Amino acid sequence: MFTERPLDGDPAAVRDAYAPDAVVLNSATDFETLDPAAAEDLLLVTRSVDPLALDPSWVPDSAPDQLRRYVGGEFTVGLPGDGGVAWTTQTEPACVIVKPRLETSPDAFVDFLVAEALVEASLNEPEQFVEFFGDSYRDLAAVTDPAIGATGTYQLAVALYDAYLGLQTREAFEGWAETFPAVYAAWADAGERLEPRLSELSGELARGQTDFAAAAELACSAVKHGLELPAPFAALDTAAYADHDADYAVRWAEKTFEQLE
User: In the prediction, which pLDDT does 261 show?
Assistant: First the structure.
């Protein structure tokens, strides 16, 4: 199921600098959430596993099945929205897992995603948005479910946590021009590719061409690149969000959805 992924150049140097004990793996199959049997295969390439113990009451009954499964008692890794690279700190050492869907992606971009995951895994932050929000997820759902539904709330929560992590990782990325120039160039290129889409986002949202959760996903993914965000997402690229985390995100959602009514 998993084989160690050889690293060299900048990705190897990033691992040495940020998460020297982390194991970078290739997955034999694509996944959104690894079932317990597959997740236990990580024991073959790590020293130990310490599954998360989460409170199922954090998740409302309306939440998607994958989320309710994730907060159950079984050892699971990953959620929809993780993209082509997932990471987990439920193992010792931490694991970064590259999925087969990236096989056709440019090597430089994959190297950046691996480097990003190594930095995120080193932050001592929650593995997924559900631990980030905790029982505040119910508050978020109460505000957003009536407007965008349970699936939209899930997608928004993923985006909000992505923005929160991006506030922390951006400082690292911005300093990589000389130390890790190849992954820095890939980070800069990814940001440049987002800019045209961001510039059109407000208009698309106003015309109903893009739904709110999808717009949030795009805007929040730009936080790590330090790009100028359109309203109402610009309020997420602030020191206040970095300082007040989930409480700030829920309050932002309350204000935003009041204005959308």
Answer: 66
Q: Looking at residue 230, what DSSP letter applies?
A: P
Q: What is the pLDDT of residues 123-138, one digit of tens each?
A: 999 999 999 999 999 9
**Of 51, 33, 49, 30, which Cα lies nearest the Cα of 41?**
49
Q: Which residues contact 127 (CB under 8 A, 6 or more apart)?
A: 52, 87, 88, 89, 90
Distance CA 69, CA 71 (A): 6
- Upper half-sphere CA count for residue 259 (Cβ side, 13 Å): 10
Please give the torsion angle defined by the CA atoms of residues 244, 114, 175 and 235, in that order, rounded to the nearest 10 degrees. Answer: -30
Report the pLDDT value the prediction gives residue 93, as an integer from 0 to 100.
96
Amino acid at 94: A
SS3 31: coil
CA-CA distance, 105 to 61, in Å (whole number)?
37
121 and 50 Cβ atoms separated by less than 8 Å: no
- H or E stretch including 97? strand 95-98
Q: Is 90 helix (H, G, I), strand (E, B) or coil?
A: coil
Q: How many CA atoms lie within 13 A of 98 on its CB side?
A: 24
pTM check: above 0.85 = yes
Closest of 161, 165, 140 to residue 63, by C-alpha: 140
| 196 cis-preceded (ω within 30 degrees of 0) | no
